Write a sequence for this structure.
RNA sequence: GGCCUGGUAGCCAAGUGGCUAAGGCGAGAGUCUGCAAAACUCUUAUCGUGGGUUCGAUUCCCACCCAGGCCU
């Protein structure tokens, strides 16, 4: 029997939680305490020109004294994978995973503690569980032609190519059906058979920042008002002027898509803000649904407890 | 005291003499591997109370209670 040498995995701290839970301040405090650098796991803060609506840290690009590379810095803490994609460009899970892993390794090589911080559950899972994502890039032509079919037709097709996938993908979820078909057609293998996990890349400590639902809701409301005070309307107007369309991934996120009706003169600004609050609440709920599945997450409600966990984890 | 209008889920609200009483909000549960702050699924009412008419009433009639409005 062959005994594999037990390789010590590098340690990665993950801080997650629903939107508006206070992850930003929380993680910065921890980063300061543990000499950490933050890698954002947030599918919206990646975009440039989208600062207020994504609640991006108000940092700035600086040249790193040592490496000479440009880094986004806030409160003296480097924030990676933030503010680097044009809102008109596409970005994907696979790209995120690759970039995030690279950053973790870099940070470790500098002798600092990598901290993956964010609320995009799938992004976090991709890194933590090393999801092996089918290497099938989006195929626009194929997607377009599939788009024309009805959901029923797509389901029928998928039943032939990958009956197992039919069980987990909702028959009404066109986007998912198309992706599954795309993978099947491109690889000639089933989509469901390619959803695997690799061996762990890092030893991870996942800390969840828990906030009671009521409190979270009032924080969400407050935050929406603050965003408006900081000029969210102007930020969105600027994006619209630059011809970023409402159906772009960047523009279809909470904080932006709610303004579509306003700019089409269909609803008032007041109602827009209400929509923003509502959709943010719903989003937070969905995030919690996602996080609940992962029993490895250790939930805390204050920095001291989190620090304790990290201390134990690092020893 | 009289007249009018209305009483449908936690809230707003449609509707019909008879298939399982729209929809929205709120709430809850869930799915999730290259758009994930996205996309999608499910749950949440015997129609104010008591009678009557009818094969059958949430819908028609009567009484009562409640709310709002008007009148004296």
């Amino acid at each position: 029997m062959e005994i594999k040498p037990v390789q010590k995995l590098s340690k990665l701290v993950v801080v997650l939680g629903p939107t508006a839970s206070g992850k930003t301040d929380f993680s910065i405090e921890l980063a300061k305490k543990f000499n950490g650098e933050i890698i954002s796991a947030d599918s919206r803060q990646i975009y440039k020109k989208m600062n207020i609506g994504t609640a991006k840290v108000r940092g700035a690009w600086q040249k790193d004294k040592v490496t000479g590379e440009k880094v986004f810095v806030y409160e003296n803490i480097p924030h990676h994978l933030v503010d680097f994609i044009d809102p008109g460009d596409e970005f994907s899970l696979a790209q995120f995973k690759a970039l995030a892993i690279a950053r973790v390794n870099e940070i470790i090589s500098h002798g600092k503690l990598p901290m993956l911080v964010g609320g995009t559950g799938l992004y976090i899972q991709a890194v933590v569980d090393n999801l092996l994502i089918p290497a099938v890039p989006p195929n626009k032509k194929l997607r377009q032609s599939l788009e024309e079919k009805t959901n029923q037709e797509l389901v029928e097709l998928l039943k032939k190519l990958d009956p197992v996938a039919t069980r987990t993908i909702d028959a009404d979820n066109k986007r998912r059906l198309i992706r599954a078909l795309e993978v099947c057609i491109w690889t000639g293998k089933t989509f469901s058979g390619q959803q695997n996990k690799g061996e762990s890349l890092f030893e991870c400590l996942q800390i969840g920042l828990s906030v009671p639902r009521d409190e979270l809701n009032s924080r969400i409301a407050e935050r929406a008002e603050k965003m408006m005070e900081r000029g969210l309307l102007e930020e969105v107007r600027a994006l619209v002027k630059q011809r970023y369309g409402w159906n772009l991934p960047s523009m279809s996120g909470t904080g932006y898509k709610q303004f579509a009706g306003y700019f089409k003169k269909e609803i008032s600004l007041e109602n827009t803000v209400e929509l923003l609050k509502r959709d943010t609440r719903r989003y937070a709920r969905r995030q919690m649904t996602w996080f609940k599945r992962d029993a490895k997450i250790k939930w805390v409600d204050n920095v001291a407890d989190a620090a304790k966990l990290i201390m134990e984890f690092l020893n």
The mean pLDDT of chain A is 94. The domain at 140-194 of chain A is CATH 1.10.20 (Histone, subunit A). The CA atoms of residues 98 and 127 of chain A lie 9 Å apart. The radius of gyration of chain A is 21 Å.
